[in-house]
Amino acid sequence: MSDDVMHAIEALREKGLRVTEQRKAILEALACTDSPRSAEETFSALPADTCDLVTAYRCLEQFEKAGVVERGVRENGTKVYCLKDEHGHHHHLTCRKCGCTEKIDLCMGDELEEAAVGFGYTELSHVMEVFGLCPSCG
Amino acid sequence: MSDDVMHAIEALREKGLRVTEQRKAILEALACTDSPRSAEETFSALPADTCDLVTAYRCLEQFEKAGVVERGVRENGTKVYCLKDEHGHHHHLTCRKCGCTEKIDLCMGDELEEAAVGFGYTELSHVMEVFGLCPSCG
DNA sequence: ATGAGTGCAAATAGTTTGCAAGCTG
DNA sequence: CAGCTTGCAAACTATTTGCACTCAT
After folding, report:
1. In the CATH hierarchy, which top-level class contains the domain B3-132?
2. Please, are residues B102 and B92 in contact by the beta-carbon 8 Å criterion?
3. Hey, is B33 helix, strand or coil?
4. Share of chain A above pLDDT 70, in %
5. Left if phi > 0, otherwise alpha if psi is -120 to 50, otherwise beta: which for A79?
6. Residue B100: closest CA among chain A residues belongs to which residue?
7. What is the distance of C-alpha B38 from the center of its chain?
8. What is the full DSSP assignment across A56-118?
9. B37 vs B81: CA distance, rounded Å
10. Which terminal residue of chain B has fewer beta carbons within 10 Å of its beta carbon, N or C?
11. Shortest Cα–Cα distance, B1 to chain A (Å)
12. Residue A82 in contact with residue A36, Cβ under 8 Å?
């Protein structure tokens, strides 16, 4: 089991969430790829009969609330999730055609906060995804 | 009819798209608000019997391809559209609770392009939305 | 007049909810 | 053993598609 998964499990415990076989498997599935995955995709990546698709949805939602995964969106609106790694917040560059992704470190968190706080907003979060055609598909 | 709508109509013609009553009404509906609106919301903002909801979906999609509207996403994945104004590209700060929005000028287009081009990506686009609680809701 | 655009009905994708049974802490 | 979790079925929301008809160019 990877470090990231262990940390995630620990985080779940700290938040008072229960650690079940299903949840461990879902975290493992998220850990074994760099690309953010949708609930369906995460579910498909699981060994057969690990859990129900609904459970994948529910766990991913819980994981996000607990802060162990990050949520993004595809160009079509599908929600995608990826395990928070030790580097914390980052974004993705996703190929519109083949779906492959690259991690990009660049994040304007600070500028955003600044602008939003200027409007008196609190509890900020943001979604940012970059789409394009990768070298192989372009 | 506002300037923005006139420009949009002109742009449609240039792209070889037809200018119908429905399309004009949809553009008007988009023009009369600062907030990005979903297809459903745009449709509801239309005078009764202007067109079918499906038409709103189809037109907004066409408008985006033609470059006369910009598309964003809500936190829940819903697609939203807003008319491109003379200032061009911008982003929004949306209140998670009441849904009100503020326009924010800040956009990291250049940094993004740079990073993405570094990976060999082409035909870039990006989605960026900031969510929070507005002063009244926070 | 010709094909883009539209309306209506129906299909689809993604996600959420209700409820009874199961398992974790 | 309390109540968080899960599974199964079903509801729902947002969006897309097929097809015949209409209208802008």
Report:
1. mainly alpha
2. yes
3. coil
4. 99
5. beta
6. A121
7. 9
8. HHHHHHHHHHHTSEEEEE-TTS-EEEEE--TT---EEEEETTT--EEEE----HHHHHHHHHH
9. 5
10. N
11. 31
12. yes
Domains of chain A, by residue range, sit at: 3-132
**Rounded mean pLDDT of A81-99?**
84
Q: What is the pLDDT of residues B29-42, one digit of tens each?
A: 999 988 899 999 99
In Å, how far are A35, A90, A104, B90, B98 from A87, measured between CA atoms?
A: 15, 8, 11, 28, 33
Candidates A111, A121, A129; nearest CB to B106: A111
Task: State whether A120 and B134 contact (CB < 8 Å).
Answer: yes
Residues belonging to chain B: 138
Q: What's the pLDDT tens digit per position in B79-134?
A: 999 999 877 788 889 888 787 889 887 777 678 778 899 999 998 888 888 889 89
Report, as an integer, the average pLDDT of A56-60: 98
Residues of chain A (10-49) having a beta carbon less than 7 angstroms from strand D = 16-18, 20, 22-23
Give chain C positions with protein CB within 7 A: 4-10, 13-18, 23-25
Nucleotide with the nearest C1' to B57 CA:
D15
Supply the pLDDT for residue B103: 87
Nearest CB partner across the interface for A73, out of B73, B96, B116? B73
In whole angstroms, what is the distance from residue A85 CA to residue A46 CA?
20
Task: State, as a whole number of angstroms, the distance between the CA of B54 and the C1' of D17.
Answer: 11
How many Cα neighbours within 13 Å face the side chain of A130?
Answer: 29
In this structure, is the dihedral angle defined by the CA atoms of residues A81, A82, A83 and A86, taken in order, positive or negative?
negative
